[in-house]
Amino acid sequence: TALGVDPGRIRIVPNWTHVQAPAADRAATRARLGWAPSTPVLLHSGNMGLKQGLEVLIDTARLAPDVRIVLMGDGNQRDALR
């Protein structure tokens, strides 16, 4: 390649490929977590850095307190987003 990397060592893995359907029942999982069946859930799964702009999501969530926000992952902004 242009950067001198052996093409045989490169693997492209698209995000969220081959994700199996959850084995747990949705209603049972919501009940276990204390979430009402009608509660909207927004999930971010990935890096929590400045570039992701997740503070906008947190600010917006204050306008809709009935929405459950779940941040899954790590990054240099994780503590600030709590």
Kindly estimate the percentage of residues that lie in beta strands according to DSSP. 5-15%
What is the β-strand count?
A: 2
Low-confidence stretches: none
Distance between the termini: 42 Å
- Total DSSP helices: 3
What number is the mean pLDDT? 87
Report the C-alpha radius of gyration, rounded.
Answer: 18 Å
What is the spatial order of strands in the main beta sheet? 1-2
Describe the structure.
By secondary structure, the chain is α+β, with helices and mostly antiparallel strands. The chain has a domain at 39-82. Helix content is 24%, strand content 12%. The protein contains three helices and two strands, in the order αβαβα. A two-stranded parallel sheet has the order 1-2. β1 (41-45), α2 and β2 (68-72) form a beta-alpha-beta unit. The longest helix has 8 residues, at 26-33. The relative contact order is 0.16. The mean pLDDT is 87.
Entry keywords:
82 residues; alpha+beta; two-stranded parallel sheet; 3 helices; 12% strand; flat
Compile the SSE list and pairings.
Blueprint (H helix, E strand, L loop, with lengths): L25 H8 L7 E5 L8 H8 L6 E5 L5 H4 L1
Parallel strand pairs: 1-2
